Amino acid sequence: MLEKQSSFEQFKDRVIDYFTNPETWLTFGAVLFKIIIILVLARIVVKVSHRAVNHMMQERERNPLKFSARRSQTIGRLINNVISYIVNFIALMLVLSQLGFELMPLLAGAGVLGLAIGFGAQNLVKDVITGFFIIFEDQFGVGDTVQVGNFKGTVEEIGLRVTKIKNWTGEVHIIPNGSITEVTNFSIHNSIAVVDVSVAYEADMDLAMQTIRETAAKVCAAEDSAVKEPEVLGVQSLGASEVIIRVTVECLPNTHFAVGRKLNAELKKALEDKGVEIPYPKMVMISRRENETA
To answer: Which residues form the Mechanosensitive ion channel transmembrane helices 2/3 domain (predicted)?
Structure first.
């Protein structure tokens, strides 16, 4: 019993001596100071690198052999993400070395672990490879309006693993790159605004066509999104109670919806001012009365 009490007393004395020893606190303070310096330097390196990459992309846009703005933005964000991952990994290794861990066994273990993860996480590898080819082939970029499967919206971010698409109602869809098999990009080429105007059968067709042509030309001249003169294609179809005249306007990418809405509103006003009747549902009642015989 006395021996156990003596051992406990010795252990307690060693613990007290350790924590009351000034060299212990000096060593602890030095390690903490080095860790703080490593984290601060890592943060500074990341910020400086991001600014350098952004400046490089801006200079690239002013170069005669420049990338498109959307591709420059996409590549810039990707490079920034890669730099952040590398710097943070190096900072983590340096912090572990300050805590007394040997770096070489950790790196060797990380290599073996990475190989095992590569075999086990095939979907992750597929996501990374697909993300690389999306960026390399410039299939779409940040700011493009795309449709991936059932999701349509603006590309917010393209990473090596996931792509973020923001819907027009505000939802953000995070899609693994490996699951992207088909993409429809609405932001590469000009779009076509198609407007169908319904005119009553009783209306003067020549007056209606002339009014539509003049109004469409006036609207497109005031719209910066319209890149060509509008085309009045003529009578598209004959409905049950209306004649449908089709108008097309070539617009900048993904602006045809706004131009079409503006054109619809102005055409309605112009047709009403010219007295061209716009059809609406009608019901005709026919009353038949049999001849009365005397």
So the answer is: 81-122
CA atoms within 13 A on the CB side of 133: 9
Q: Which contiguous run of DSSP H or E holds residue 147?
A: strand 145-148
In a domain, 97, yes or no: yes
- Statement to judge: residues 47 and 106 lie in one domain: yes
Count structural domains, the chain.
Answer: 3
> What tens-digit pLDDT sequence spans the chain (294 residues)?
545 556 666 666 666 666 666 776 677 777 788 888 888 888 888 888 888 877 776 765 555 445 556 666 667 777 777 788 888 888 888 887 777 777 676 666 666 566 655 555 667 777 777 777 777 777 787 888 888 888 888 888 887 788 888 888 888 888 888 888 888 888 878 888 888 888 888 888 888 888 888 888 888 888 888 888 888 888 888 887 888 889 998 888 888 888 889 888 988 888 888 888 877 766 667 776 655 444
Q: Same domain for 145 and 110?
A: no
Rounded CA gap, 201 and 284, in Å? 15
Range of the domain at 199: 191-273
- The answer to whether 290 touches 243, Cβ cutoff 8 Å, is no
User: Do 208 and 159 belong together in one domain?
Assistant: no
